[in-house]
Amino acid sequence: MIELSGRTLARAWRSVQVASSDDEDRQALYRAVHVEVFETGVRLIATDGYWLARCWAPADGSPWTAEPDWDELPDNAVTMLDHDWRVRDLMKFVASVTGRKDAPDITMTLDPALRAVNEAVPT
Questions:
Q1: Sequence-separated (6 or more) residues with CB below 8 Å from residue 111
Q2: What would the pLDDT profile of 79-100 be if each residue is shown by its tens digit?
Q3: Beta-sheet strands, E only, within the chain
Q4: 108 has which bridge partners?
Q5: How far is C-alpha 20 from the geometric centre of its chain's CA atoms?
Q6: Helix crossing, 6-17 with 86-98: angle to 10°?
Q7: How far apart are CA 46 and CA 15, in angstroms?
Q8: What are phi and psi of 13, to 5 degrees?
Q9: pTM of this prediction?
C-alpha cells in the first residue's frame, strides 16, 4: 500500500492511459494499465501492442525523486483493467478538483493487494 498525491497520480494515470488498447479482442491489453509499486512511488505502464507509455509518479510528489532503475524489482505489481472507464473517470475528476489554482491536493491510497470482489469479472 502506498499514499500518493492525487494531483501526481491523476496526471501520471492520464498520461499513460491513452496508450492502452481499445481493441476488445486483445483482452490482456484492453483498457489496461500496469502498476508497479516501489517504496518511493509508482511506475505506470500501458500499451496497445504498437506503442508503450510509461510514467513515474513519486510518492513525495517531488519531480526530483528518481525513478528506480529498470532492473529493480517492484515491491508489488498489478495490472488494472478499466473496462468501464471507472478509473479514467475518477482520475479526470481528481485532476479537475486539484488542478484549480490554490486548490488543495488529495491524498490517494493505492493498494495493489486488493482484488476484484468477483474474480470472474475483470475490474
A1: 1, 2
A2: 888 888 888 888 999 999 988 8
A3: 2-5, 32-38, 41-47, 52-58, 76-81, 107-110
A4: 4
A5: 12
A6: 130
A7: 9
A8: -60, -45
A9: 0.84
